[in-house]
## 1
Amino acid sequence: MTTPMPLAHLKVIDLTLARAGPTAVRQFADWGADVIRVEPPAGDSVLDDRHGPDFQNLHRNKRAITIDLKTDEGHALFLDLVRDADVLIENMRSDVKHRLGIDFETLHEINPRLVYGSLSGFGQDGPYATRPGMDQVTQGMGGLMSITGEPGRGPMRVGVPISDLSAGMYLALGCCIALLEREQSGKGQWVTTSLLESIIAMLDFQAARWTMAAEVPLQAGNDHPTLIPMGTFPTADGHINICAPGNDRFVRLCQIIGAPELVEHPDYATSEGRSRHRETLNAAIAQRTATEPMAHWIPLINEAGMPCGPIYSIDETFADEQVEHLAMRAPVEHRTLGSFDIVRNAVSMSRTPHRVERSAPDRGQDTDAVLAEMGLSPEQIADLRSRNII
């Protein structure tokens, strides 16, 4: 018997575009919610490669319908769809949803139990509220680019859209908390976050160094900003990451790489000294690690109780035996593309298995089915389609 998915009782309306909003919705879709993606009848082909890896990975496990929200009939149809929804997630600029008449206040009147999730670039109000948001812009404004990359090389963006991804995850968590609170109050509420808020929160201890101690963190390249030695070191056939801060670990590492003289060196005798002389210490360690391949160093250092691992290209990541064991590739079937793999959700549960029920839908693929569930007849649906309302 198939195990029921834990969120199968939830109806989620997806009004999102780009990446941050869909990342939030994906958390509900992956765990069984009935996610209905609402799109206009015509879309932007530049941002909407539905058969590409990005769209297929972002929008799996959803149904898709088309409604023109700018028409009176389309707006009324949308309100009917929302009446029994549990969650709505959108990432429009703060003024757009009010102009369309689908803001929290409007929808809360017709469905007081609705949890309404909003994601924006800079917040729902304030001086930047109506600015368009973009991951790289908020990586810069949030301070992340100032601490990413090598010293003296200028600011550097992170290699994934981390503002988008973190904002999506924070919003999904906030909506789940609001659903739990609804069990006590019986009422929905407005849940908000932004790319800017999320990236500042993701700075974590680097931000706290400023808020608590007025210390401005700087770029440290591949080295850890405060723990030494911890960073990237060359080997005979690639690079590895080594984590050996603290006196005991430092001594063990020096023994393993055959450099006992580093333990006795006065510059490296204390954590403070190792921090001041980071460059020369790392160079001395690198001179030893470069003499042997990764397969030599990784087991030795790990067995001594210190984290150490290879630096892979993405194809090498998916070929690693631990990654294969974790089954991070999820198979899916598409009616046009056939069979392919996407990246599975990172969470595992003891009684509920990972499951990809549906590939990402084509535009309006489920319009007829969803509207029929709402009580519309085939004739009514055909009439709406003939007038481009759906």
Note: Residues 295 and 310 are 9 Å apart (CA to CA).
## 2
Amino acid sequence: MANKIDINTVDQIAHLARLEFDENSKPGIIKDMNRMLDFVDKLNELNTEQVEPLIYMTRESNVLRADEIQHSISQKEALKNAAKKDSDYFKAPKVIEQK
């Protein structure tokens, strides 16, 4: 393994991730992070020479339908059942306030 995690590394990672740890929890975090690095090193021992890179998690592909032109409703029909409208548009309550 290239590097072991120490208290300075934990402090740097905590700063970058905007996390705060008390001094009592740092030894446990160091231990857990070193175990993670050991696990990754163990994976590096595997021979992956004949293994193709994984691009997708499944072998399924998208099944797309052909585009078909369909009759759509007119503007007048669309506005027919609107709760609030003016002559051409739907009316909705204001959701953005200016300050």
Note: Residues 7-44 form one domain.
